[in-house]
Structure formats: structure tokens, C-alpha cells
């Protein structure tokens, strides 16, 4: 699977690279309740001029991030 990016969305540079990556995600609201989660994110595109990183999350990873928000929410700390 390729990520068809020819130019950076931020600076319009053509000097971009596509990589597979693992991204660690931790919610501050969940300190002590849950360890950080590592997501496998294929096709992360990084601009070598400005540093912009672009990717799309698979449905499973997106649901996991959504669950972190719901589990960590309380009446004084709801994220919309």
C-alpha cells in the first residue's frame, strides 16, 4: 500500500518520505489507569523540509483513540 503524496500540504515541498511507524499514545487523564498504547501506523509521510507528519489511522486504531477519550472523560473533563 502506498501513500500517494507528492507535495507537503504545509510548505508545498516535494522532499517527503513515506515510512511505516509505531506511535505511542497516552492520555494524561488516564495516568495510573492504563499504560501507553502503541499503534502501528503504515504510511506515515514526513516532510523533510518543514517536519509536517501526515497519516491516516485504520478504523481499529481510530476506535482505540476514541475509547481512550471516553474512558478518561468525567463531567469536568469532557473532550468534544
Could you explain the architecture of this structure?
The protein has 80 residues and is an alpha+beta fold. The chain has one domain (16-72). It has one helix and three strands; from the N terminus they run E-E-E-H. The chain has one helix at residues 59-72, and strands at residues 16-25, 37-47, 53-54. A three-stranded antiparallel β-sheet has the order 1-2-3, with no helix packed on it. The model is unreliable at 72-80 (pLDDT under 50).
SSE order and pairing:
Elements: E1 16-25, E2 37-47, E3 53-54, H1 59-72
Antiparallel strand pairs: 1-2, 2-3
Could you write a compact summary of the structure shown?
The chain is an alpha+beta fold.
Q: How would you describe the shape?
A: elongated
What would you report as the Rg, rounded to the nearest angstrom? 16 Å
- Overall mean confidence score, pLDDT: 76
Q: DSSP strand (E) fraction?
A: 25-35%
Strand/helix succession: EEEH
Number-wise, the strands total 3
Separation, N- and C-terminal Cα atoms = 32 Å
Mind describing the biggest β-sheet? 3 strands, antiparallel
The number of helical segments is 1
The main sheet orders its strands as 1-2-3
Helix content: 10-25%
Structural class: alpha+beta
Overall number of domains: 1
Amino acid at each position: 500500500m502506498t501513500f500517494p503524496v507528492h507535495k507537503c500540504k504545509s510548505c508545498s515541498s516535494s522532499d517527503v518520505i513515506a515510512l511505516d511507524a509505531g506511535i505511542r499514545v497516552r492520555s494524561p487523564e488516564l495516568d495510573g489507569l492504563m499504560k501507553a498504547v502503541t499503534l502501528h501506523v503504515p504510511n506515515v509521510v514526513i516532510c523533510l523540509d518543514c517536519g509536517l507528519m501526515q497519516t491516516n489511522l485504520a478504523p481499529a486504531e481510530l476506535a482505540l483513540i476514541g475509547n481512550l477519550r471516553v474512558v478518561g472523560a468525567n463531567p469536568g473533563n469532557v473532550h468534544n
